[in-house]
Amino acid sequence: MNSPSTIAHRRSRLAHWITLFALSLCSTLALAAPNEIIYTDAGALRGTTSGAMDEFLGIPYAKPPVGDLRWRAPRRAAPWPGILDATQFAPHCAQNASPFGQASQSEDCLYLNVYRPKGARADEFRRLDGLPVMVWIHGGALVTGESDDYDPSALVDKGVIVVTINYRLGALGFLVQSALASDPNSPNTVTINYGLRDQQEALHWVQRNIRSFGGNPHNVTVFGESAGGLSTLSHIASPLSSDLFAKAIVESGAYSLVLPSLAQSESAGTTFATAIGCSDQSATCLRTAPLSAILANQTASGYVPTVDGAVLPQSLGAALAGGSFNRVPVMQGSNANEWRLFVALDFDLTGAPLTAATYADVVNATYGTTLGPIVLDLYPVAAYPSPDLADAAAGTDSIFACTGRIAIGALSQYVPVFAYEFSDPNAPEDFLPPVSFPYAAAHASELQYLFGLRSSLPHPGLNTVQQQLSNTMVNYWSRFAKDSDPNQRGNSYWPPYSLANDTYQNLTPGAVTPEYGFAAEHQCGFWSPILLSLGN
């Protein structure tokens, strides 16, 4: 018989070897992750590793919407043979070149990308429920943009899986035309909002497959900016998106709470069909029309979804106000100087900066002859460094800030909401060249604080204090994705929004704190009654 000391010694040595074996196993799994074969419901695939992140790129989530599938609801991707090489981005959706997206002639574009912490499969053994998942919907007025512009490594480093998606854009994604509305393969009578349906198909793919990558399908956050934010609000309001996500983040996305009716959009669709050579208004002509004609005649300024009775039973503002939406926690906000981007595009970069004389004409043309003079009194040129900035202030308040506050207030009556304002006065401009005024916290300027961005323009990047703000924002976004609450030790406390406190978290370098003057700063006392009377 062994002595107690001998038995203890052997137990100690056994525990030591078990520990070494476990560490070796985890290390082996983590190192093997880039070559790991992932099995999805359509087939096997293998990705690659970049730094501390595993990447699985160009995964088809739906059949190519080409030929007879153009302007139809997306179909689940067909199975593929062998092992898919998921190491390169797939083509992004057809669009004209712009500062916000690269030209593409491809209608075969329904692909997504999965990014996870390196060795997430090994981590899954320790987290039986899987990692939180964040599904990113890119912006671009629903007419431009692509998934591969966004490097989510900062978010992934916080222990989440990020999925970025392509979806049909422009007329291919949002045309409404009566001959196309009937789809025998769709469960709904009316088949439009193809781009939103693509996004829903991608979310279905996530539900079916994300566990294979180490993710938790029950902890999915949908988030997007600009048109991606409007898309996110649309999924909050859409019964067809029910149970596809558990929380949502809306960045500068509440700019169009009143959506067109089916009849309004069909009228525009008739005009479009004639413009591309389909005066007979037939589905056959539309589905065989040259892509070049479609891109040349679609609305360059962008699209919005249509109230179709299926994807969207009612307009967004009405759905939120009435509580008829998918009740999930929401983070939502806007930027302090949103409209400066559009003033630059419309005036300075066309060679015609606003003057004191043309400012009045632009305001009256924008807001009408009844409201225009009041806006001129509220935003007088003399109160701003230039007419450009006066117009930018009015546009920021009326189109983004106060519409966003209406949506936030409505949501907060039913679900937890965390409101923010991004307000770095020196945020670098990633998309447009310099103009006569500072861009400050213009539309889309917060993106570089969350992602690495592919940009064709040189810019200085973030300085030290801005990088600190970036770290704070990444912590907020990833913590919300994990726990439905952005707060964690080490970050400034972010109080939940209520109509009573009307509190936003101010995101600015060196001063991330709650702010209480958002409504006054953006003249919402003036704008909100007007917007609400319009249905916003």
Q: Characteristics of this structure?
A:
Rossmann fold; disordered N terminus; 11-stranded mixed beta sheet; 536 residues; single chain
How many DSSP helices?
16
Rounded Rg: 25 Å
CATH homology group of the largest domain: Alpha/Beta hydrolase fold, catalytic domain
CATH level-1 class of the largest domain: Alpha Beta
Briefly note the CATH topology name of the largest domain: Rossmann fold
CATH architecture of the largest domain: 3-Layer(aba) Sandwich
What's the average pLDDT? 91
Number of domains: 2
How does the major sheet shape up?
11 strands, mixed
Query: What percent of residues adopt helix (DSSP H or I)?
Result: 25-40%
Amount of beta strand = 5-15%
What is the strand tally? 16
Secondary-structure content class: alpha/beta
How does the overall form come out from the CA principal axes? globular
Neighbour order of strands in the largest sheet: 3-4-6-9-7-10-11-12-13-15-16
Uncertain stretches of 5 or more adjacent residues? 1-32
Between the first and last Cα atoms, what is the distance in angstroms? 84 Å
Description:
With 536 residues, this protein is of the alpha/beta class. It has two domains: 31-328, 3-Layer(aba) Sandwich (Rossmann fold); 332-533, Alpha/Beta hydrolase fold, catalytic domain (Rossmann fold). It has helices at 4-32, 120-126, 153-156, 170-174, 194-209, 227-237, 262-275, 283-288, 291-297, 316-321, 340-346, 356-378, 387-411, 464-483, 518-521, 524-533, and strands spanning 37-40, 43-46, 48-50, 53-60, 83-85, 111-117, 131-137, 150-151, 161-165, 215-225, 247-251, 330-335, 417-422, 452-453, 504-507, 513-515. Mean pLDDT is 91; it is low at 1-32.
